[in-house]
Input
Amino acid sequence: MVTNMQKDIIVQKLRDSGCRITKQRLMLLDIILEEDCSSCKEIFYKASKLDKTLGTATVYRMINTLEDIGAISRKNMYRVACGMDCCAERACTITLDDGSSIDLTGAEWNRIIQSGLETNGYAVGKKVISVDARSCDCTSSEDRKNA
Output
């Protein structure tokens, strides 16, 4: 699942590239980022359930625009791309058990993931090109203890 911060970065990139941020574009962005869609047709099918006035051309233009600004990659099945040269300032926020948090840039996030995968033998000699993270509704052991 993509965080609101990542969505906000994408919306800002859209604005910077001259796009108006319409309700349809926001709806499409939500579907693309939150769902596991593998094609424009699938995105259109899900979006047309929410907005009957949406046309397929709108979906294709949105996908092309998101690709142009580097927010998604069709090679990665419309998942958010965050590779070694990612310029996102706050791509990831990590919350620690003492309540503190660490904000990482896209490049830092990639470097840490790459290092951890190599150290544990998962990606020796390979490079991370994107990460598809999902949040969960699990409560921590600390939360359960205090409940």
Q: What stands out?
A: Strands lie at 72-73, 79-80, 92-95, 101-104. The CA atoms of residues 37 and 43 lie 6 Å apart. The chain has a mean pLDDT of 77. The chain has six helices and four strands.
